[in-house]
Amino acid sequence: MILSCLILWPWLLALWLGSYPRQCHRLALPGALVELILTASSVFGSPTSTVRALHFPWLGSLWFLQGSALANVLALTAAVLLPFVLIFGRSLKEFPSLVLASLVLQGALMGTFYAQNFLGFYFFYEILALAGAWLILVTGDRDRFAAFQFLLYTVGGSLLMLVAVLFLYGQGGSRTGSYDFSWLHLATLPSIGGSLGLLLFVGMLAGLAVKLPLFPLHSWAGSAYGHAAPAASILLSGGAVLSGAYGLVHWAIPLLPQAALEFAPFGVGLGVVGTLYGAFLALQSPNLRRFAAWGSVSHMNLVAMGIFALQLQALSGALFLLVAHAVLAAGLFGVIALLEQRELAGNWDAMGGLFRTMPHLGAWMLFFFLTAMGLPGLANFPGEFLSLAGAFRVFPWEAAFGALGILLSVIVYLRAYERVMLGPLPPRMSSSQDLRGQDWLAFWLLGLLCLWLGLDPQALLAQLQGLLSGQSPLWITGIGHGL
Predict the structure, then answer these.
(1) Which of 85, 151, 247, 418 has the greatest number of CB atoms lying within 10 Å of its CB?
(2) Phi, psi angle pair for 210, to nearest 5°
């Protein structure tokens, strides 16, 4: 029952606030905290609960929800992000629209994590795409092209994923005489290899890699994150990407393990190229929004490299980095949101020397930049280290080039910090307000999360070990790669 509440509560709250938009400032944050409490009670109270409803012949139970170790971790991560979205977006004129779109996206995210029927997963995945496009369309620059591009990439890719699964469903049913879209049924069908299996895997990958976003399906990210309000980008960059990575680990690879093994070298190569290319694009970005966007793309391609290595250490590191990146995205886009509230987050040549008037915000910006660089003791380091160390065991040359992306990120983030916080102070910036009370609280909470993940990574890694005994890891035992 509680799994259904995680999906329906944000949607019901959005329906209520849509009828009474003036209540958004008063009720949105408490509603987000209720969602967080519900998620925590599900994760730590009854992680193996199951819900089955809406059963149809030939389709299975469309409302089939079940908890797992990975789903619980990602659900809790998404629930943690939502209050920060509302805190950093509270001063926007379009705050009611931000609230409604964020709540719809939050419910869809929970559905993608817990749905065990593929048609249910696909339903939530499409709502996620629509809610993401809505966020881009109603916040920030309200750029229609950016919203349409995001929608075109995600919906077009997911249609290919649907076609691939429909083929698996039809062929498996013709062999066994049993037709069902549940994960439990599809994962036990005879595996398809060869060129056909590879083609089906690429079809599923087309729908899931867009959300990561994996190179070369990344081009929507610059315009989407660059035009949406920074608070909205927290959910797009830190939240929506979780569904793409989860789909790879829970759906694509377990259903087509042989094809995943054949595609692995190409997937690792694409992840390495995306890591380097994203860092170069960040270095050439005209403003902070674009900089954060391409920095996020670079990190997520490193996650993809760890997943496609098909090696347990690399997989653990990739999933850890996925969670760390979500926390980091909240910090980075939160800093940008506060700068934009003070009309300071323009092009690089219009900025500089802000540390003199905003030392506290400058200190937090440096903290999150150091986290993004992978400084030991902070959130990104364990995930980056494990991803590269595991990938090096099976793809040493690719892992070596991936490490160059981390080195390049040091240059990228230090250069950005110098442009914003150091150097001469432009005359019009002689007086800028520093952090306020609610801002302090948000940054301290994010900072403590970064320190906890960096100093005690085993707490999260132990949770991720549930992959070894849960549903998803059939592909682990079925694929070699020196595991």
Answers:
(1) 85
(2) -60, -40
